[in-house]
Amino acid sequence: MNLKALLTRTYWLLSEQFGVDPRKMLHALAGLPRYLRDYLRFRSGYSGRIELLPCLHDWVGEGGTTKLEYFWQDLLVARKIFAARPQRHVDVGSRVDGFVAHVASFRNIEVFDVRPINTEIPGVTFRQADLMQAAPEMKGYCDSLSCLHALEHFGLGRYGDPIDARGFERGLANMAALLKEGGVFYLSVPVGIARVEFNGQRVLDPGTVMQLAGDNSLAVRDLALIREGGKIELLAPEQVRLADVARERYALGLFTFEKRA
Fold first, then answer.
1. pLDDT score, position 193
2. How far apart are CA 43 and CA 165, in angstroms?
3. How confident is the model over 106-153, as pLDDT tens digits?
4. DSSP tag of 52
5. Alpha-carbon distance 104 to 96, whole Å?
6. From edge to edge, which strands make up the β-sheet containing 179-191?
């Protein structure tokens, strides 16, 4: 791991897991003089009641985050589903406050997740389910399926799921079984040098993903690679260079598969 990757990982651990965000703290301290200056200027022209609620970060940066891989995968797949207009779309484990909400804004969507969802959401039907467990009675259940940035967590226990070293293999096979022949599966997982970053995620060799897909009657239609900063590379099947991707440290692979007989 190079120095940049090590610093990025350390920052993520401090901010996301221990609640200490050095960068945010430095930005806040740097913003205090402006806040005080703006307050005094406003106070000089306003005589009503004022309560202090400092917001020290919102005057810098863009009007939203558009460089994260979640933004791009959610947008790209939602647009594909809108264009395809499937009869029944099922999602497994994707973010409810991102992709699921996108799709629910224009059609009904069924959500399967190992975690509970206790909120009633318009357009969303929820089923608590562990997709590492086979459900033969649901074979051929839908003609459209998505699993975005979720399969890499199966079997690591991060979300309360059972520990299973082969969890991602079982999960992919069981999801493929949900699809009817001719159905479409939108799958995103981290790809690159194969490893487990316990208990956060797996990074999968893209060749392994393609092999498992083929073993479960899934043929690739296309692949998008989303890299740091929202850089997107769209590839047709004949353009996919799996060996090159497998030597990268990290990218998000967004696969579109079709279920074959």
1. 96
2. 61
3. 999 999 999 999 999 999 999 999 999 999 999 999 999 999 999 999
4. -
5. 10
6. 124-128, 109-113, 89-92, 142-148, 179-191, 251-259, 218-227, 231-235
* Residue 40 vs residue 15, higher pLDDT: 40
Average pLDDT, integer, range 236-241: 79
Query: In angstroms, rounded to a whole number, what is the distance separating the alpha carbons of residues 36 and 227?
Result: 39
Q: Where does the pLDDT of residue 1 fall: very low under 50, low under 70, confident under 90, or very high at 90 and above? A: low
Q: Identify the structural domains of the chain with CATH numbers, from first to last.
A: 1-61 (no CATH), 69-259 (3.40.50.150)
pLDDT tens digits, one per residue of 29-42: 999 999 999 999 99
Q: By the 8 A CB rule, do 230 and 72 touch?
A: yes
- The first and second tokens of residue 232, run together, are 């997107």
Length of the chain: 261
pLDDT in tens, 74-85: 999 999 999 999
Identify the CA nearest to 91 among candidates 175, 180, 215. Answer: 175
Tokens of 51: 């309560």
Q: Which among 228, 202, 206, 225 has a CA at the least distance from the CA of 76? A: 225
Q: Angle at the Cα of 198 (from 197 to 204), degrees rounded to 5?
A: 40
Which phi and psi angles does 178 have, rounded to 5°? Answer: -70, -25
- Whole-model pTM: value is 0.90
Q: Phi and psi dihedrals of 224, rounded to 5?
A: -115, 130
Integer Cα distance of 204 and 223 in angstroms: 14
Look up tokens 């009817």; give the residue: 180
In whole angstroms, give the CA distance from residue 46 to residue 59: 22
